[in-house]
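Consider this:
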Amino acid sequence: MPRRFRDALARPGLQAIAEIKRRSPSAGDIRPDADPAVIAPAYAAAGAAAISVLVDERFGGSWDDLRAARAAAPEAVLLAKGFFTTADHLRAAKEAGADAALLLLRDLADDECARLLRVAGDLGLETLVEAHDRLELDRAASLDAPVIGINARDLATFEIDRRGQLELVAGAPRDRVVVAESGIVSRAQGAAAELAGTDAILVGSTLMRAPDPAAKLRELLSRPLVKVCGLTRQEDLDVAAEAGADLAGFVLAPESPRATDAVLPVPETMLAVAVWVGDAGDADADLDQVHERANGAVRGRDGVLLRDGEQVARLLDLPWDGEDPAHWESAAAAKGRIVLAGKLAADNVGEAIRRVRPWAVDASSRLEAEPGIKDHDAVRAYVEAARSA
C-alpha cells in the first residue's frame, strides 16, 4: 500500500502535521470561523508534511471539513482526526479524502486496534496510533504501528507533561515514525522533541490562535535556531528571551571569563545549554555543550551538543585567538546538525546562515560590553538578524 503519510513524516529534518480545528474541550473556542478550504492550501505552501483535520463536532469539525480540505489542497497528505472506533468510521474517513486516520489507544483494546489496523490497510488508509504513557507506547510497538503519536496532553485531565512526553519519545522504537503531539508553542520546544528523537510534531492550537496560522507554522519549522551564550545575569537572559533567542548558554568552566556558577531558569519557550570543558557535569539544563581541553587555551575549538549524554549536534567554532578563512566553507560541508559559532554578530550572521545553512547559530563575545556582560542592543540586533536571514 502507498505510504504517503509515513513517508512525508519520515523526510529528513523536523516535519510537522499542521492541524485545523475550531475549538477544543479544554480551551473552548479557538478559531470558530476557520475555513479548511483556505487554511489547508496555506499550510501546504508553508511546508506542512501533513494536515490534520478535526472531524468531530466536539472540536467544531465535520466530515465536510475534510472534504473541503481535500478539494482545496488535492496534493496534500490529510489526517482525519476524531474518536474512531469502528470500521465505518475508517470508511467514512477514506471516502472523505483522508490518507490516514487517528487511532487512540486510550479508547481501544489491543484486539480492537489490531482489527482497525487491518481494516485501514484493506482500505488503503494509513494510521496514526496515539499513546500518552509508557504502557500505551509499548502497546503501539507491539501492534506494529508504523506511525506512533505521543501526546503530551492527558486526555482525561487536559494537563500537559512535556518532560514525560520527551522521555517517551526518546524511548520509542527507532524503526517507527514518531510524532510528538500537543503543547508546542515555540521553535525551541519543537527542537526539544526533535533532539529527543521525534520525526514530526503535531501542532494545532498554537497555529489556530496565531493571526496567520501558516506564518506561525513557517516560524516553528524555520532554522537555524538562535543561541546566545556566555550568559551570567538574569537581565541579559531576559533580553535574549524577549528578542526571540531559542537557546541560552551558560558556561560552567571556572577558567572562562564568562563563567557562571549555575544555569539560570529559562522561560519554557527556550532551552538551557550548560557549557563544559572536558567532561559534562551535573546541571539543570536541557542540553550539555562539551568542548575538549586544549593546551594554552580555555577550551578546544569545536564541541558537541549532548542530550542525556547522547550526541545530537556538533558545534563548529573559530579559534579564540585566530582566524580561519575556510571556517564557513568547512562548516557547510559538515554532515548532521551543525551549530555554527565564531565571532558572529548582527553584521555577519545573515551571510553565515546563507553560506552554511546550519541547524543553529551561536554568539557570545561580540554581544558583550565586557566578558560575561551583554550589550542588550547587540543581543537584540543579532537575534533579529539571525531570525530574519
Remarks:
- Residues 225-388 form a domain with the TIM Barrel fold (CATH 3.20.20.70).
